[in-house]
Amino acid sequence: MYDVLCSITQTFLSSQSFTMLVLNNTNTQPLTFFLTGIPGLEAAQVWISIPFCLLYVIALSGNSMILFVVLHEQSLHEPMYYFLSMLSATDMSLSLCTLSTTLGVFWFEAREINLNACIAQMFFLHGFTFMESGVLLAMAFDRFVAICDPLRYATILTNARIAQIGVSMLVRNVTVMLPVVLFVRRLSFCSSVVLSHSYCYHVDLIQLSCTDNRINSILGLFALFSTAGFDCPCILFSYILIIRSVLSIASSEERHKAFNTCIAHISAVAIFYIPLVSLSLVHRYGHSAPPFVHTIMANVFLLIPPVLNPIIYSVKTKQIRKAIIKVLIQKKLQI
Question: β-pairing, 112-114 with 32-34?
Fold first, then answer.
């Protein structure tokens, strides 16, 4: 009987010790992080927020307009414009990911964000960034088929195939981002909880960990190289084939017309990848630059594609421009 009582007591004490250990670990785990506005320019953040606010308005209104005209204008129900609507939806979602936290920090000094919200924002932020890369690859494929094999364009890019391409991009992004999120949940954060951006960024978050984050770094690099790192060379290769095909056309007028259909997409690719590469170079080699340079560049990088893509496609694509003018005239007549 005594032995049984001793055994029960030891089990109870060990379970109590385990419970206390879990509680201690929970207490030491910071549940709240602090976002950063623009270091060194805190006094001017309200004024700096005005151009950022305008950029968000332009991004959301411009992409909403593109989506509206593509969905409602029957003449735009073609593969090229379906992919354009995917790009606009992705750009709009990317802007909405950071809108609340960025303007919250600038306007109200609302710097606190809990761990779950931070991980959720990180998931959608990186997911939509990779999604944009995938959409640009799909649009490159669309231009390749339209120029290199125009007779089979309608049979290759059917509505069902376009839907399959969209779903496959979504599945790819979720597949690469889920392990990244799950392994961030395993990290412990001991002392510093101040992030260096006005939104949650994977590299920024794992650097605050006081445990080994090598697996997280590897998963982050794998996610990057399996999405944007794969898409960029494929886009480049598709344009090599397009250029070779266009140069074989005898008529200079036809060559000019073929190249002209690619200008908007080439511009969209440039404004997505050039800021991405520039930001990486600044983070790697620009250690002497003031902290606010890194922060402003990081915020601008997320806003450049959503702001410029609708403008580029409205200016360079006659059908989109006509559809937008038609919608605006109809609205004016209704007023």
Answer: antiparallel
DSSP 228-285: HHHHHHHHHHHHHHHHHHHHT-S-HHHHHHHHHTTHHHHHHHHHHHHHHHHHHHHHHH
Report the C-alpha gap between 194 and 137 in whole angstroms: 36
Residues of the chain short of pLDDT 70, as ranges, are: 1-30, 283-284, 286-287, 335
Q: How many CB atoms lie within 10 A of CB 107?
A: 13
C-beta of residue 119 within 8 angstroms of C-beta of residue 184: yes
Torsions phi, psi of 157, nearest 5?
-100, 70
Residue-by-residue DSSP string for 71-86: HH-GGG-SHHHHHHHH
**What pLDDT is stored for residue 284 in this prediction?**
66
- Strand intervals (E) in the chain: 32-34, 112-114
Residues 6+ apart with CB under 8 A from 82: 70, 159, 162
First to last CA, the chain: 91
Q: Residue 198 is encoded by which pair of tokens?
A: 């006005």
Cα angle for residues 178, 181, 182 (degrees, 5° grid): 85
pLDDT, position 9:
40
In the block, tokens 């600044």 appear at 282
| pLDDT at residue 283, as a whole number | 67
Can you give the pLDDT at residue 20? 36
- Residue 32's contacts (CB-CB under 8 Å, 6 or more residues apart) are 112, 113, 114, 115, 193
